[in-house]
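Hi P.,

Sorry for the delay on this. The queue was packed all week, but I finally got your sequence through. Input first:
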Amino acid sequence: MGSAASDWVLSLASSPWVFVALALVLALSGTLTFLPTQSLVIALATIAYARPEQLFVTIVLLISTTVGMVVGDLGAFGLARWTHLGGWRWLNGVRVRRMRRWMRRRLRDQPDITMISARLVPMGRLATTLACADLHMPTALFVRLSAVGSLVWAIYSTGIGAVAGIWVERHPVAVICIAVVIAMLIGMIASRIQTALMSRETSESRSGRAS
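Then the structure:
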């Protein structure tokens, strides 16, 4: 059973079209935030570790992930600039609006760090893209920031998969699930940290206005 599961899991990454499909999913996730992008990247990275050409596959994975993320960011950025994407009803929840305001302040001071760290937080990628559109950021600068953030996120997600891949030959499905859960826990921790920072900055801002 273990061998059959291993062969089935490894066969998922045997075709180059898998990376094309991954890039497409990542591009669509620029606006369709419900797509399981990180889970897919981690799963493919875990599988790549068990293949003989693991270095080549990992490099291709990093490239396809980064390109897909940048294309998705650029698409969402264009929609936000030209079709008022940020005004759509499903993007105007309290948390998203609050996150966008916080991102706008952070982008003015630390654009690179903000673009990187936002990708660890649920809805952070889209909220940052909308914040960039709100600020009328030049497209060239946005693409550069997106490329930096996407590459760092790709390395981070692939790294989790690579570490998990050490055990993939024995328990492939279980190892991939554990790696995905770990990534989700990191995202939850990052989200709580961000929420705490936003609350603190809001309190300081109110105190400053009161004084």
